[in-house]
Write a structure and sequence with these properties.
alpha+beta
Length: 150
Amino acid sequence: MVFAEPTHWSELTDEERAAGDLRRNTCEIHVEEGDFFYVRGSLDLPIRDWDESLCYGVWSSLSARNFRRFHELYDDPARVDEPPYSSWFGNRVPGFPDSLNLEARVEIRDADEIPAIVLYEEQDHPLVAAQQDGIELAQAIALVEPVLHT
C-alpha cells in the first residue's frame, strides 16, 4: 500500500495546497500555523511465517533543517552515512488504531531506495509492535485485502 500524500496534505484547502509542493517523494506545506516538511519512505512489517515483509509507502515529517539536508544529499552516495532524522509519522494506517504522529526516525539508505521509516520502540501502539515483532501472514492478507478490492 502506498499513500499518495501525508495525511496533513489531504486535510488542506485548495488554497493551502496551492501554496505547498507535493512531489513523488517530498512534500512541503506552508500554512498559517507554520511550515511542515515530509519525505516518503518505507514502513516494513516483517511477516513471521513468510520470507517477505509487508511494505507500506508512507510519509514522515522532517524539520526544515533536516529536510534541506535530505535534499542536499539526495543523489550523493555518501548519504548512507547520514544519521537518522527524528520524525513524526505522517499517515493513518488502516487496520491499526490512529498512527498519525507516532514518533519515528527516517533512516537514509542507498540512493536508489527510499528511506526506511522506523517507529520508536518505546511507544505502546499495535503498529509499533507489528514493526518490531512482525505479523502473521493471515494478518498481512487481512490488511491488504481491502485495498485489492478498490
